[in-house]
Amino acid sequence: MDSIFDSTVFNQNLFFPRADYSSPPRNAEELYIEVEPDIKVHVRKFPAPSARFSLIFFHGNGEIVSDYNDLAQVFGAIGGELIACDYRGYGKSNGHPSLRRVLNDACAIFDCLTKNKVLRPRLCVMGRSLGSASAIELGVKYPEIDGCVIESGYADPIPLVERRGLRVDSITPEENAVFNNSQKIKKITSPLLIMHGKEDQIISYAEAELNFANAGSNVKELELIDGVGHNDIMLAPNNKYFGTLEKFFAKIF
User: Fold this and answer.
1) Which residue has the higher pLDDT, 30 or 10?
2) Distance from first CA to last CA of the chain, Å, rounded?
3) Quick one: residue 29, left, alpha or beta (phi over 0 = left, psi -120 to 50 = alpha)?
4) CATH number for the domain that contains residue 237
5) How does pLDDT run across 150-204, given as a tens digit for each residue?
């Protein structure tokens, strides 16, 4: 039986791609990574000479790499040289996204960045919302990664399906192994930070608590941030968002 996660109706309801025709910022490095024949995913590196580590970042649904142009300096100031990744059909990428393709493409991106020596010796992966799936996939598949950050991420794929207006009573072992963040995160051994807004109405912070409880890392932190939701978490009072990241990065790098 075909998986609902591979179905057209699920993926058309899950993804909200938008194109990007803007010019890149000055000094940004544009990469187009072939994830399968004739399909290229856009990745943008924001060089930060004083950075201590590379930060591979997978953005949220409905976002694109260019949304992070002005934030690259902020990430650089707390030590991370930002490498922001789009998905198929997003930004300057071609093709059509599916959740399975997103996971496979994350590995293809990582392999290409490694092969072409784009990455610094120390490395962190970070995923926001939908991007949490990509970050967890890399954290599991590449234990040499030094740290992992999950922001506003989901845990159980059944609520993910139901948020798309679909219904599923159970998932197969194969689907669970591939798509269930709360199960996969058990295999992450690198230091882990999970951040979530307490007012998040899209993905409940209970999913962050589940991911944290299941996480296999011996060094793990959970930061539930008061007064912010899913799309305004970076605006948390008292610089809580970037302050939490800075403390985590200082600890592991």
Assistant:
1) 30
2) 46
3) beta
4) 3.40.50.1820
5) 999 999 988 878 887 888 878 899 999 999 999 999 999 999 999 999 999 999 9
Angle at 139 between CA 63 and CA 155, to 5 degrees: 65
Looking at this protein, which amino acid is placed at residue 174?
E
Cα–Cα distance for residue pair 43/82, rounded to 1 Å: 10
Model confidence, pTM: 0.97
Residues, the chain: 253
Closest by CA position to 126, among listed 37, 225, 57: 57
Q: What is the mean pLDDT of residues 138-156?
A: 97
Phi, psi torsion values for 29, nearest 5 degrees: -105, 120
With tokens 């010796």, the residue in question is 121
Question: Which residues, other chains included, contact 80 with Cβ-Cβ below 8 Å and sequence gap of 6+?
Answer: 48, 51, 52, 53, 54, 55, 124, 249
- How many domains does the chain fold into? 1
Look at residue 247 and give its three-state secondary structure.
helix
Show the domain range for 140.
4-252
Note the pLDDT tens digit of each residue in 49-74.
Answer: 999 999 999 999 999 999 999 999 99
Give the C-alpha separation, 22 to 25, whole Å.
9
Beta bridge partners of 34: 40
Amino acid identity for residue 169 in this structure? D
> What span, in angstroms and rounded, lies between the C-alpha atoms of 90 and 17?
5
Q: How many helices (H) and strands (E) does the chain have?
A: 9, 8
